[in-house]
Amino acid sequence: QVQLVQSGGGLVQAGGSLRLSCVVSGRTFSSYTMGWFRQAPGKEREFVANIKWSGDSTYYADSVKGRFTISRDNAKNTVYLQMNSLKPEDTAVYYCAEYSLRYYYTISTREGEYTYWGQGTQVTVSS
């Protein structure tokens, strides 16, 4: 059974930083592209970033580019999202997700292409 367990998140002031983690079990983590998505109150879930299985390619939504960094440690089956210079509009529930196909990398932002999801982590940025 594939499980994605998230940690991190919380309340931070604007301009601050947070790091989210997502530990994956039940599948060969190092074979899959990983992504982060977020859902703000009253809005649809949106793509934030993804990272190739090998870690050498990443893609970001324009809204977070230059502020957020996605990374992974395949030895620890973990993907991270470092969030710097946080803004109130970054407030959302953040989800990690594992792509559906092995050894496949895409800059597609469609959530339907991701098979497994974490439980979600609340990030609140106060002004």
Describe this structure in words.
- With 127 residues, this protein is an all-beta fold.
- 0% of the residues lie in helices and 53% in strands.
- The protein has strands at 3-7, 10-13, 18-25, 32-39, 46-51, 58-60, 68-73, 78-83, 92-102, 114-117, 121-126.
- It is globular, with a radius of gyration of 13 Å.
- The mean pLDDT is 97.
Question: Key features?
Answer:
127 residues, mainly beta, 7-stranded mixed sheet, 4-stranded antiparallel sheet, 11 strands
Summed up:
The protein has about 130 residues and is mostly beta strands. It contains no helices and eleven strands.
**What characteristic shape results from the CA principal axes?**
globular
How many alpha or pi helices? 0
Enumerate the spans where pLDDT stays under 50 for 5 or more consecutive residues. Answer: none
Beta-strand fraction estimate: over 45%
Separation of the first and last Cα atoms: 40 Å
Rg from alpha-carbon coordinates: 13 Å
Biggest sheet layout: 7 strands, mixed
What order do the helices and strands follow? EEEEEEEEEEE
The number of strands is 11
Sheet/helix structural class: mainly beta
Helix share, percent: under 10%
Q: What is the arithmetic mean of pLDDT?
A: 97
